[in-house]
């Protein structure tokens, strides 16, 4: 057994005599520990923390200690959110990230964050999730760099919602929409301020209107 074994199912807020705050955690994990029964059968009942009556003052102190509101950069990737409790707790944390500027949510099996607003987020990485539409992304009015690689986005419908954002770089690699005809022209025509797509800068041929490029592919037989 390791000295830390007695703390492995506790959140840092439940560990006494420390001054760690939420905005000092670089890669926190959202977890729900095993039930008391399961711990008993595992022979790990020593990891149980004695339950005590929590006062309103202690609840308020715990909320202040979490301090998610002041996170500027946060990595919440690889959370393995297999339980409904974990998903709801995860979204509760996201809703408090009102000052986050860089956020990584890679490989979390996320499907819909449309109820989340990240007003200051400039860089968002949601690679390897289960998004099927741009409409399922959080509200990110200040976004500059957005990475959506390895999701399941079928069409470019909804991409024009980012037209009025300062979006400069977009990654859509390994999404079904990448195989759409005139894919790059369609993306750049929807987002005229975009400078880079899938790691490739905007090229002259990307600026041609989709209908013109299509016209040049036609063959007239006399």
Automatic annotation (TrEMBL):
The keyword Repeat applies. Keywords: Leucine-rich repeat, Repeat. This is Protein tilB. SUPFAM superfamilies: L domain-like. Coiled coil: none annotated. InterPro entries: LRR_dom_sf.
């Amino acid at each position: 057994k390791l000295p830390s074994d007695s703390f492995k199912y506790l959140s840092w807020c439940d560990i006494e005599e420390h001054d760690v705050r939420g905005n000092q955690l670089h890669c926190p994990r959202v977890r729900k520990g095993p039930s008391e029964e399961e711990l008993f059968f595992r022979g790990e009942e020593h990891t149980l923390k004695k339950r005590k009556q929590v006062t309103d003052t202690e609840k308020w102190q715990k909320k202040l200690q979490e301090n998610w509101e002041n996170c500027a950069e946060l990595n919440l990737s690889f959370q393995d959110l297999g339980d409904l409790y974990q998903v709801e707790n995860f979204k509760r944390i996201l809703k408090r990230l009102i000052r986050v500027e860089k956020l990584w949510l890679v490989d979390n099996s996320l499907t819909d964050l449309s109820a989340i607003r990240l007003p200051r987020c400039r860089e968002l990485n949601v690679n390897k999730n289960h998004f099927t539409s741009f409409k399922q992304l959080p509200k990110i009015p200040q976004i500059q760099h957005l990475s959506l690689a390895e999701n399941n986005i079928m069409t470019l419908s909804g991409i024009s919602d980012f037209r009025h954002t300062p979006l400069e770089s977009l990654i859509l690699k390994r999404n079904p929409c990448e195989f759409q005809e005139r894919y790059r022209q369609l993306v750049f025509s929807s987002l005229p301020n975009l400078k880079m797509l899938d790691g490739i800068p905007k090229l002259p041929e990307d600026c041609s209107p989709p209908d013109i490029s299509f016209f040049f592919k036609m063959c007239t037989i006399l």
